[in-house]
């Protein structure tokens, strides 16, 4: 029996049980039958979940781009691998075949090698959603360099932090990027970031917007002339299964962003397998995931998952509202998209617009529609199901994380009956459990707890770059022997999971995972600010928005509060990026703190929500009187 694809519900349970009883056989068979290896593994998995040491397919040798590209060339050489849909609908879409992708990746790989990039070096990629982004990533993978993609909406400071942490020696960027009616000056942001990044010796620049840019002598090089000269033949580096494939940063509840490290073989097996099953992918389907490649969703389900299955994947440069709110629907019709995978925040924003925007377009090419990034509320789920899926396409509400590498809990399209707001069952191979406060596993159904995974899976991150202790502390210490997700969940009467949200200080705004610490640091850098605390509160479109409580320095100076709000948001934009701006601000004289000095955020969250009851135990507070003051002054 093949375990790569589940065909019906009965088989789902069979595969699931097999994956728990004999995980090594289960994953071993999937890996053996569906990928190309230079050399097989010695052991399918070895692990110590207490030390957070996990290895999959150790001893195996492979190159992931051989699996994403080369092995398809015989059968699918002239098939479209990537459809590039530009920001401006009047600019022609580009269809890149597997043969052309192979040529482009080989040329780029040769350019990287000529520029001195070697196996194990880190390359930071800061590009808009253009084909060169995909090509640069795959070229790194071809030569064994570790790619570290930074979302091109991040500020120069956020970019610098990530370049410094990963010690990248090269940055690949562009003159600028188009986003709706705006042009973003990416090269300028890179120039500013690099003032603090001594590790970077080379910057390769893609021409996209034709914006005039500074080219620093000896460091910055236009990419195209190098590509023109490069050979389109490039031998793929032979990689070990556990060699790092990439670093991708994600926010933590405290401190710097965490550079999650994903390794070669396990990530490859897991993204390919989850893509095939969740979306029920069939040959000639056109897959469109609207995320940015700068997030894990883009890595796994725009690039690796689809290409590993020889699929056609869409890269969309623009935004859902440009030139108008029908853009998504227009693109689905134009490219006859079969699977459409997007985020609840986009669905909510588009559901607010006139229905004609969707109704004008033929969406009957769609087979499966999916959601990711945050809990999808019932209203958004129904709107998506009724108006986009036309009640005929299964809605796959997929739960997973940057750390998990791929989808963990989700309906399998056409197999698992869907239920609004429920991510339903874990995929075969994923041992999800709920834990109570006493660290015991909660058995049975109709229960609520903290979501953990009790057995390794191939796509899990292996460490945090340069900080294994932090990896261990963050994910493996609360529930010894288990991976703790940071999410709360409930399990209904049939065993379906519903993710209820974060149980830590991470806030999900428009599907972006934001830690409170860097935002508070940015606010505190404003000269008028003494201290601050940021919490999330429910928002119609964004899911959560940010509410900042700010204590001003007592300088005797009277400041215009509205101007201060604008200035503080500018600080956040500069330090973190515009996605982290506050929606509301409240100036306060103090913050509720425990005797050990920790801000009691759950109280601030309640006040921000306008819910002035059930503050819970406040006996450990040093200054309980502040609660009433903050509450009374809330606007
Ligand atoms: O809280 C969960 C939420 O997003 C978090 C992971 O964020 P990030 O690492 O940025 O990855 C997002 C894309 C995979 C999770 O801990 N989340 C993600 N998907 C869902 C979700 N919450 C509820 N339902 C989902 N389908």
From TrEMBL:
EC numbers for this chain: 6.2.1.1
AMP-binding enzyme C-terminal domain ranges (all copies): 519-598
Acetyl-coenzyme A synthetase N-terminal domain span: 12-68
Record carries keyword ATP-binding: yes
CDD domains membership: ACS
Signal sequence annotation: none
Domain called AMP-dependent synthetase/ligase: residue spans: 70-463
Keywords, ordered alphabetically: Acetylation, ATP-binding, Ligase, Nucleotide-binding
Record GO terms (molecular function): acetate-CoA ligase activity; AMP binding; ATP binding
First-level EC class: ligase
Any GO BP: acetyl-CoA biosynthetic process from acetate
Any Pfam family matching the protein: AMP-binding_C
Keyword Acetylation: yes
Record-stated family: Belongs to the ATP-dependent AMP-binding enzyme family.
Protein name: Acetate--CoA ligase
Annotated organism of origin: Flavobacterium flevense
């Amino acid at each position: 029996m093949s375990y790569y694809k589940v065909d019906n519900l009965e088989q789902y349970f069979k595969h699931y049980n097999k994956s728990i009883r004999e995980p090594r056989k289960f994953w071993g068979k999937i890996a053996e039958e569906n990928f190309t290896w230079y050399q097989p593994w010695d052991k399918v998995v070895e692990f110590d979940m207490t030390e957070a040491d996990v290895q999959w397919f150790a001893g195996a040798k492979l190159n992931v781009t051989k699996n994403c590209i080369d092995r398809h060339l015989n059968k699918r050489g002239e098939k479209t691998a990537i459809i590039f849909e530009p920001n401006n609908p009047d600019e022609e879409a580009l269809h890149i075949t597997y043969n052309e992708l192979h040529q482009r990746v080989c040329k780029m790989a040769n350019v990287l090698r000529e520029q001195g990039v070697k196996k194990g070096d880190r390359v930071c990629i800061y590009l808009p959603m253009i084909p060169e982004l995909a090509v640069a990533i795959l070229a790194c993978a071809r030569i064994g360099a570790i790619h570290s993609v930074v979302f091109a909406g991040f500020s120069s400071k956020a970019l610098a932090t990530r370049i410094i942490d990963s010690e990248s020696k090269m940055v690949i960027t562009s003159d600028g990027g188009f986003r709706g009616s705006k042009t973003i000056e990416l090269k300028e942001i890179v120039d500013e970031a690099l003032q603090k990044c001594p590790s970077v010796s080379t910057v390769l620049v893609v021409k996209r917007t034709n914006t005039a840019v500074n080219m620093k002598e000896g460091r910055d090089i236009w990419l195209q002339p190098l590509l023109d000269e490069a050979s389109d033949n490039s031998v793929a580096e032979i990689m070990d299964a556990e060699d790092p494939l990439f670093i991708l940063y994600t926010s933590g509840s405290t401190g710097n962003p965490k550079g999650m490290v994903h390794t070669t073989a396990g990530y490859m097996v897991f993204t390919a397998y989850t893509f095939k099953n969740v979306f029920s992918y069939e040959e000639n389907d056109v897959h469109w995931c609207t995320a940015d490649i700068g997030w894990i969703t883009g890595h796994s389900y725009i690039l690796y998952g689809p290409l590993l299955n020889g699929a056609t994947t869409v890269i969309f440069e623009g935004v859902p509202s440009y030139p108008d709110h029908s853009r998504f629907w227009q693109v689905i019709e134009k490219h006859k998209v079969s699977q459409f995978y997007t985020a609840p925040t986009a669905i909510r924003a588009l559901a607010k617009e006139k229905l004609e925007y969707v109704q004008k377009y033929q969406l009957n090419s769609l087979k499966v529609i999916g959601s990711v990034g945050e809990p999808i509320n019932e209203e958004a789920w129904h709107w998506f199901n009724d108006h986009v899926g036309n009640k005929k396409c299964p809605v796959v509400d997929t739960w997973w994380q940057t750390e998990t590498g791929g989808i963990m809990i989700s309906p399998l399209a056409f197999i698992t009956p869907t239920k609004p707001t429920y991510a339903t069952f874990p995929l075969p191979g994923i041992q999800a459990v709920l834990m109570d406060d006493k660290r015991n596993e909660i058995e049975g159904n109709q229960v609520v707890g903290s979501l953990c995974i009790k057995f390794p899976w191939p796509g899990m991150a292996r460490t945090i770059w340069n900080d294994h202790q932090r990896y261990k502390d963050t994910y493996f210490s609360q529930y010894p022997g288990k991976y703790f997700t940071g999410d709360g969940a409930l399990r209904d009467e049939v065993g379906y999971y519903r993710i209820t949200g974060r149980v830590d200080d991470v806030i999900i705004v428009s599907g972006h995972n934001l830690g409170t610490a860097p935002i508070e640091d940015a606010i505190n850098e404003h000269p008028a600010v003494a201290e601050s605390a940021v919490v999330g509160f429910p928002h119609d479109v964004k899911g959560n928005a940010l509410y900042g409580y700010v204590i001003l320095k007592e300088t005797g100076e009277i400041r215009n509060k509205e101007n201060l709000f604008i200035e503080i948001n500018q600080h956040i934009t500069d330090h973190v990026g515009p996605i982290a701006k506050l929606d509301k601000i409240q100036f306060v004289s103090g913050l509720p703190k425990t005797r050990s000095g920790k801000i009691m955020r759950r109280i601030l969250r309640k006040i921000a929500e306008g819910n002035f009851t059930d503050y819970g135990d406040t006996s450990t507070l040093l200054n309980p009187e502040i609660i009433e003051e903050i509450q009374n002054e809330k606007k």
